[in-house]
Write a structure and sequence with these properties.
Layout lengths: L1 H31 L12 E8 L6 H9 L7 E9 L5 H9 L6 E5 L5 H11 L4 E5 L3 E3 L3 H6 L7 E12 L7 H19 L9 E5 L13 H6 L1 H4 L3 E14 L3 H23 L7 H15 L1 H13 L5 H22 L7 H24 L13
Parallel strand pairs: 1-2, 1-4, 2-3, 6-8
Antiparallel strand pairs: 4-7, 5-8, 6-7
Helix pairs in contact: 1-6, 1-10, 1-11, 9-13, 12-13
Length: 381
């Protein structure tokens, strides 16, 4: 029974730490021990790179958005790579190919995955700074200037933009939007203390000399690329004024697909890193474990907490804990069975939490069974 008690409390403490304790820890410490970074107007060479696959609905708006961006004094170029698109994406891109001061268009067949598209684009790029963005993310007119300014600090290797979520169509309660605000607060605090752990791949920039060609089997290209900064003892910082907007359909089943892929890619990165992918400082390991690895392990910790609690239900305190878990999961099941209840946060938040953790469990299985494909499947986010 002592073993079961230790198992229960270890699982409980790790869950509380990763979802509540660590965020509070960095949010409290950030104002006290902030490490500000220098910001100046950037006047070097910049390459903005967009990888796309079957983006006919948004690609015209994306190209027009890119052409309207103000890079300030920077010498910039825009490169868009169409990775084996089979819809009208290539036809739309062809309209912009011959315009002066326009966009460099690269198309090829067959589809080979985003990692391949990024490798091809970077091989053609001449910028000292590389900006990466998603095709469905519209960037603010002066946001690139804000994104580039922190590179005046030699300790800064990667800069993450601030992507706002706009809901589209019929929707549930925007659990993803809530989660993104929560994550943004934690990321900003991490950046102020030293460095973020990874980036939001919707909009980020990195120094060209940090770029390493991606393996064609890479699942999380943004995480893999951005983590080169702390590996090389440089910082990943958050630029809240580098605004962009991503239009999403906030449905939990969409988040299920996305989260499963993220966790499979996270395990892939961790395995490759432990197999000789470099080294991290103690502080970065602490943040990596607290913010990422424990989140990926959360489904196993939740199962361990529930199972061990079942063996200890006779004690009054443990009985209340078991009832609390039962009530939480009951609300999640109600949210699954009765879609109308998802408009209530009391139901939707347990439902959303369980969906993303089931997805994390699936992501682990896909990694172990090598079932997660590197080519990305567009999710209506």
């Amino acid at each position: 029974m002592v073993f079961v008690t230790v198992f229960l409390w270890l699982s409980f403490c790790l869950l509380v730490w990763t979802f509540v304790g660590y965020p509070l820890f960095v949010l409290i410490l950030a104002p006290l021990f902030a490490r500000p970074w220098r910001r100046e107007s950037f006047s070097g060479k910049v390459s903005m790179i967009i990888a796309a696959h079957n983006e006919e609905e948004v690609i015209r708006a994306k190209v027009e958005n890119c052409l309207a961006l103000d890079f300030g004094a920077a010498d910039h170029e825009i490169i868009i790579v169409s990775d084996g698109s089979t819809d009208k994406t290539n036809l739309i891109l062809k309209e912009f190919a011959d315009k002066p001061g326009g966009v460099q268009i690269i198309t090829y067949q067959p589809r080979a995955g985003k990692a391949n598209a990024l490798n091809i684009a970077v091989a053609q790029a001449r910028g000292d700074i590389l900006i990466f963005g998603d095709a469905n993310v519209m960037v603010g007119e002066t946001s690139c200037q804000e994104l580039l300014a922190p590179f005046a600090d030699p300790e800064v290797g990667v800069v993450c933009g601030h992507v706002l979520v706009r809901a589209r169509g019929e929707q549930e309660v925007a659990g993803e939007s809530l989660y993104m605000r929560y994550e943004a607060a934690v990321q900003q605090a991490e950046a102020r203390l030293g460095s973020m752990v990874g980036v939001d791949g919707a909009l980020f920039a990195m120094r060209r000399d940090l770029f390493r060609s991606l393996s064609l089997g890479t699942i999380l290209d943004d995480f893999t690329l951005s983590m080169q900064a702390p590996v090389q003892r440089q910082r990943i910082v958050y630029e809240e004024n580098a605004l962009a907007v991503e239009e999403v359909v906030p449905l939990a089943h969409n988040e299920f697909k996305r989260k499963g892929r993220i966790v499979a890619g996270g395990y892939q990165y961790l395995a490759d890193f432990l197999n000789g992918g470099g080294s991290l400082s103690f502080g970065m390991w602490f943040a990596f474990i607290s913010h990422k690895i424990l989140r990926w392990l959360a489904p196993f910790l939740l199962l361990a907490l529930l199972i061990s609690n079942i063996f200890m239900y006779k004690d009054a305190a443990y009985f209340l804990l078991l009832m609390g878990q039962g009530g939480f999961y009951l609300l999640a099941v109600l949210g699954f069975l009765i879609t109308g209840l998802r408009t209530c946060y009391l139901v939707y938040l347990p439902y959303y939490f369980c969906v993303v953790n089931l997805a994390a469990l699936l992501g682990f299985w896909r990694f172990v069974a090598a079932r997660q494909q590197a080519v990305w499947e567009k999710v209506e986010r």
